Amino acid sequence: MIDEHDRLSERFEEHRPHLRAVAYRLLGSRAEADDAVQEAWLRLSRSDVGDVENLGGWLTTVVARVSLDMLRSRAARREELGDAHVPDSLAGPADESDPEREAMLADSLGPALLTVLDTLAPAERLAFVLHDMFAVPFEEIGAILRRSPNAAKQLASRARGRLQGATPSSGRDLARQREVVDAFLAASRGGDFGALLAVLDPDIVLRADAAAVRMGAAGEVVGATAVAGVFSGRALEAQPALVGGRVGVVWAPGGPPKVAWDLTIAGGTIVLIEMIADAARLEELDVSMLESSTKGQG
User: Distance of CA 272 to CAs 31, 41, 90, 102, 217, Å?
Assistant: First the structure.
C-alpha cells in the first residue's frame, strides 16, 4: 500500500513542472530554480497540509517566497562584491541529456526577457512574473511581499515600465516601440509569416485574460512560431494605441476598446503580449488611440 508520504510525494511531482517554471522565471537560473523547488518539497514534507484545498497554490506561494529570499540575497551580494548575475540562457548551453530540463527551458524565457528581468528589484520581479506570466492575483502577491494588493499592483506596473528601458514619456523610446508595433500590424494584416517572426522574440509569451479566453483565445501561447500563427492574416481592424503609457494595440469597433493587447518590447522585438478583454480592466487602462500608419488595410 502507498503510505501518506508516498502519496504526498506523488502529488508534489504532479506540480513539479509548474513550480520549476515559476522558479526559473523568477530566478533565471536552472540550478537556483531546482534549489527553490527542492526547498518547497522539504517544507511540504514537514507541514500538515491536510486542510489545504489548493496544494498547487500553496506550493507556488512557497516557491515564490523562497525565490524572493534568493533574489534579495543575490542583490545583497552584488552590492558587496560588485558582481553581475548572468542568466543561465546566456551563460552557456543547457544539458541536452536532461529532457525534463530542456522542456522547462522551452516553456520559459528567452535571453532578451531574462536579461531585462534581471534589472528589476526583487519585489518588482516577483510581482511582474507572478501576475503577468502566471495570473496570480495581487491579493496573493501582496501577501507574499507583506504589502497591500494595491502596492503589489504598483510594483508590477513599475516593472512593466522599467522593462521598456525608458519611462513612458520618453519620445525616443515611444518612437522605437511604434516602429515595432507598426511592423507587427503590417505583417499580421498581410499574413507575412516571416516578417512576424522577425518582430517576435523566439520565446515570446502570449497570455489572455479570462474574458479573452471566453471569446475563444488560448490562455497561453509560447514561442514565436505559435504566436505568429495566432496573428498571421488577422488584426485587420486592430489599431495602434498608447496602452498604459506605451505603444500597444487595441480593437475598438466604433467606440471604446473591446480588446487591448499590452506589449512588452525589449531589444527591438516583442517578448510578451497580454490580451485584455475584461471590461473592468479595460476601463482602468489609460488608452489613447494613435493615427494608423496603415490606412486602408482592414
Answer: 25, 30, 19, 21, 16
